[in-house]
Amino acid sequence: MVFVRQTIVYSASSAFSGAVCVATRYSAVRRQFGSHNGTEMQVIDYRTQQSRLFSLLASASAYTTSDSLFHRISRSGSPVHSMTRILDSWVLEGRSVDCHELRYLVSHLKRSKRFKHALEVSERLMSMYSMRFSPRDSSLHLDLVSKVHGLDHAEKYFETLPRYFRTRAGGTLLNCYASGNSAEKAEALMQELKNLGCVRDAFPYNVMLRLYYRLGWYEKMDDIMREMKVRGVSFDDITCSIRLSAFVAARDIEGMESFLMKLQSDLCYFMNWKDYVVAANGYLNVGLLDKVLVMLRKAEQHATGMMKQFAYQHLLTMYARAKYRDEVYRLWDVYKNSWEIKSRGYGCIISSLVILGDLEGAEKVIAESLSSTGLTFFAINLLVRAYCEKGDPKKAEALINEAIQSGKKPVTSTWDILATGFCKKNQLEAALDTMKKIGMTYEQGQKLNSSTLVACVVYLRERGDSRKLEEFMSLLGTIDYNLEMLSRDHSNEENIGSDLYNQMELNMHEKG
Prior knowledge:
Layout: H1 2-29, E1 31-34, E2 40-42, H2 47-64, H3 69-75, H4 83-92, H5 99-111, H6 115-128, H7 135-149, H8 151-160, H9 163-179, H10 183-195, H11 203-215, H12 218-231, H13 237-249, H14 253-265, H15 273-285, H16 289-302, H17 308-321, H18 325-338, H19 343-356, H20 359-369, H21 377-389, H22 393-405, H23 412-424, H24 428-436, H25 450-463, H26 466-475, H27 483-488, H28 499-511
Antiparallel strand pairs: 1-2
Helix pairs in contact: 1-2, 5-6, 6-7, 7-8, 7-9, 8-9, 9-10, 9-11, 10-11, 11-12, 11-13, 13-14, 13-15, 14-15, 15-16, 15-17, 16-17, 17-18, 17-19, 19-20, 19-21, 20-21, 21-22, 21-23, 22-23, 23-24, 23-25, 25-28
């Protein structure tokens, strides 16, 4: 996922640079209006054009500069890489590191789930700009310490903070306790925050509600919500979503309906489409499909604004889970006539049709959309997997070939899924031929199905084909899977622990 995010950022900066380049060239060539001698002036000579264009040109240059601190850190995604070393090298080159730039890097790395790297940059921010280290910086640092080193280290860091910082970072520590399911510590800290007057909104209450929901302490959730009413703290959409989810988890349909009615009659609360989806899940769990349909229709009505497209994507899956095939196709018609369809949209409709068992319908959607740039193999793979699980890898292979002929580029998981499908049918030669294609798409860090790799290695060893085995091992030399151990000791094959290999061996004995 980190690689995907990096690719999106790089592609956006490249597109931006290209647009600025076109605008600059056009402004240099285009002439408009004349001077006193009758010759038209270049558009780029107008100061208004320069003020708008040159700032964008500078931004484009900064975004596409390959040797920036952001680019160096973004490309060093491996956990073994040290951000401290990169920062030291940057400073030794005589370059400055701004406080705001470090803050942005910490947030960027945290969003990318590179918590260890984010903590290293945060520590540099704290050491270089200790006087400008804000309560928000401390809260973020506390969260990173908890994620990287655990709660004990987070508590020690919290104790070192000034009193004012601690009141601001208390909610973060509370969230750390809740994430670690430390209910006793979370309750004690919550009481301390209330005594200090730091509990003014729904956030800390939502943290406790989420903790009790995970632990299954539903009665305490009611106590929390009663306290919120007494203190005059309004429920927000997160509060209501957690409580509704708890009713669903407990299969308390009566309680869910009662709470839902209270929300609908509350003039201060605006019903969210997600509330109705949670209720639909509750009805679906107990088989009340008529009520599921009512809730999903209401969710459609309450899906508005920028979230409407995302809501429809989710509702497609919900209609499919409830086996409302006609509703899936109806909503898909609305969806494709309302928005430009991207990969996520195609993924939702294909997965929905797969859930319904309508593989022909999913294949028809793909066939009609092969010319669309929004359709990628990340969506096509859903049907590839479905065919393989159904025991028809040949049909999956035909689908892949058709997509390739239309200009689509397969990804590593495409070949991995197909190879696994051939293995399950005991077609090991076809699986090996498919695995060879992974070399064209494989990128460092991607994981493959270990059972499929084991099956291929064992098959080649049993055939005694040392040349093909060596070629296969060489092809997969960059994969983080210890295949050498398997090839070194043939007697360990029975202890591999692979259900796929055991099934393959059973099939061989039956044929023999």
